[in-house]
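S.,

Sequence below, as promised.
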Amino acid sequence: MEKNSRSPYEIAIAQFDKAAAHLDLKAGIREMLRHCKRELIVHFPVKMDDGSVRIFTGYRVHHSTVRGPSKGGIRFHPDVTLDEVRALAMWMTWKCAVVGIPFGGAKGGVVCDPKQMSENELENLTRRYATEIAILMSPEGDIPAPDVNTNPRIMAWIMDTYSMHRGYSTPAVVTGKPVEIGGSLGRSEATGRGVMFTTREALKVKGIPLDGATVAVQGFGNVGAVAAYLLQDKGCKIVAVSDSQGGIYNPKGLDARDVMRFKAENRTVVGYPGTDRLTNEELLELECDVLVPCALENVITAQNAPRIKARVIAEGANGPTTPEADEILYDRGIFVVPDVLANAGGVTVSYFEWVQGLQFFFWSEREINLQLREIMVRSFNDVLRISEERKVDMRVAAYILAIRRVAEATMIRGIYP
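The prediction came back faster than expected:
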């Protein structure tokens, strides 16, 4: 991917400053919201299968706890940095505020390559990292969730580790767990389902019929694959998908569920029968109605934004578009559903899971999906209203809404002591 010269945190700050300029914030409140509340760095040993001991570095960052406990995923990736985790924590604050759920933002990560580790090594790393960040983690204070290269199994290890320390089962300490130990029905599809709901609303705004709309998805993981088959179920035509190995293209359309089956068997979408191969960069510039970037940050930049042909971009990933690219896309009339809105379905159903875990009272999948749709559609319309009133793009509008909500909560609570 083309690299941007600014770090994710610098981009997050630039996005904040751009939106904050539209609000009459007190200087102290503005400065407070530009900083993370606390940052934990841990260096911890893990015993490997060959008997050696390796030292790993992990992070857990809280951006805000004003509106409730901090909430955010944990990623395992060789390129994890403190700056990236700071940015992701800040984005989580805005994401929770945009959809109106009572959480602040957090994020965590470990610098590692889980694809090069055995299951036993991965479990050892997870449990030791969970122990190290347990000084911050609790159902009342900080609730982790899955992110890049983490999944329900890893959340189960974290929940079990925390529960062993407490002496009793504590399901509400993490979300994204298996249903068998207190996870929520509908959670695995929630982020992709939220992308589908917001994409559907964006197509209405642009006057593009849902039936037959062409869609390209960069990043065919949990979010991208789910978004693809749910949009396909609504009548969209999935023309291209990709993963870290590359992409596939068929203008006549792909069967998203069959591509999922192929990837499960071959560990990549590349080579799927009846398709042309293309790069991740080429996928971004395809002729299509909807582009759904679900990979990593900074893939849509000032360099490639002028060549993007999609009419709608729904950001399944966190931070896929740089501020410079945002301005180009807005000037070109491309409708961007920003990450803090488009992919907020995951944290919304995580909120449902947390509530269920606290109460030990569980909901049906139909009830969860109906509640999710209501929240996502309402939030989309709240952001669209600000966008039209202020004549700003959807990202700035979402930030205006989120920052205002967090700032109001801060003012009402006051500054301690």
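The mean pLDDT is 96.

Coffee later?
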